[in-house]
Design brief:
mainly beta, Thrombin, subunit H, 4-stranded antiparallel beta sheet, elongated
Amino acid sequence: MTTRSNRAPWMIFGALGCFAVCLFAGLVGGGILILRSGEQRTDSFPLTPMPIPLLPVSGGVPLPPPPVDHGVTCLIEQEGVIFASAPDLRNYLSEDGGITWREAFRSGLPNGSYCLGRDKPWQVFAAVDGQVQYRVTPEVGIERSEDGGKTWKREVDLAGESWQAKPQTGTPVKVEVKPGPFDVMVHRPTGNIVAAMGHLGILVRTPEGKWQWVRVGNYYRGDVAALPTPAPRAAANATPLPTPAAPHKLLTAHPKNTTNNSFGLAFSADSQTLAMVGFDAVHLWKTADWSQIRTVGQQSGRGVVEGVALAPDGQTLVYIAGDANKIVQMWKTQDGALLRKLEGHTSWITSVAFSADGQTFASGGSFKDPTVRLWRVADGAPLRALKGNPSGVTRIAFSPDGQLLAAGGPNQIWRVADGTTLYTFQGGQKLPTLESGILKNGSLAFSPDGKSLFAVEGDTSMRVWNMADGSLTRTIMLPLPHGFDVKSAAFSSDRKLLATGLGDGTIWLWRLEDMTLLSRFTFNENWANVAELAFSPDGTLLAAMSDLGNTVRVWAMK
């Protein structure tokens, strides 16, 4: 099953802008055509001049407009250190939970514009069980709830606050003043609540319940500048994490296409085979010795493979490819022969999944074709199309007995036998409603007995619903570092383990029973999204793929 995960805009915006300017200058000046990494063509070719907006120039290269300064807008956490960023590309760090700050120079941090879009209230969960919450309303205030959001008490009143910028020195910037908060986080080592307040600096709540304004560089509230620097608050000693097993094997499926965004992983039911998407084909690997079995469905440049699923018996493989990814292709794994191509979707397909008995598989469409289509495996006959809401399908999962089908995106659960919608994740319909959110990233899985549905969402929450009545039985906020949403997740087949992949290239392994963090390890050092995760059915292996290249790492879990 595949979920499209785009890396955060702030991680690539600067690099793309620089690359575009440099590439254009190189093309005009030298007539060099870049074919791919490590390969270039040096023969000159004529170029038609293109109109360029009149901007100040330096050495013949247009200079970018001055950055816009909104003050401190973004917070991000790494290894207990809080980094704060402003749109003028200045970075600051705090090692004591937001009480004291110093200027830092760290590449790859958000440029501040990432956090400027919040103009409506949002909630921050301070407790893992979701009971202690903060409701943040820009320009209005911050409220606290200790009963899961049933009742609220205003702790910070921002009405009438003077949102004024202080005189700046140094690099010319365009100053714009907007009311905060822009970003709010929980610093778990100290228990502090830290809020980015734009030109007013930082606002911190200590575990004792005291809110205090803190100066960050030249951003501060008027009555803070003359005060002495607060004494640093020592961070609590973090509990050492278990040492993870070393990567069992590094696989590279298509080294000549290492920057494409195709990804997908699937284990066979006996855990003996791993299927990996590699740009224009699916590669099968033997888990016993990690030898490559074969490549299935080579597209020869005619299509891009987007997802993969293996039938429980391991004999049939389906993936999405062809005609702008609107076609499901079925292949035999034994000899790589094409069985059939299945058409019916009117736009690209996002995910595929088999039922546990292997007799049915489902394919989910994008927002342009928000349907889930059911197909009979034996002959590829279409069984029915299940209509979802316009948001499109992000992931699909069958219940163990094959009687129910859940889809994230439309956030619905259907009865497979007749296509009846049993529950929705949202209100607005005369149907029983599963409480809470829209699933965008993460994972969706039924419990082994089919009585519960687990969902991990991109906002770092995990929810569990009772399939008997659709009631929400459990809400857990994963204690992950602030600033990195969950980009992928996977449950072990016995639902005892949960793996979450973040946008900083790390994987976090949890024990579901009590949400104890068992291990944390790094997939890559490039802050790339961990785009896909998959446990082997026997629970001995965890495979991961990032969105920077078609490489897979596999860890031994036992």
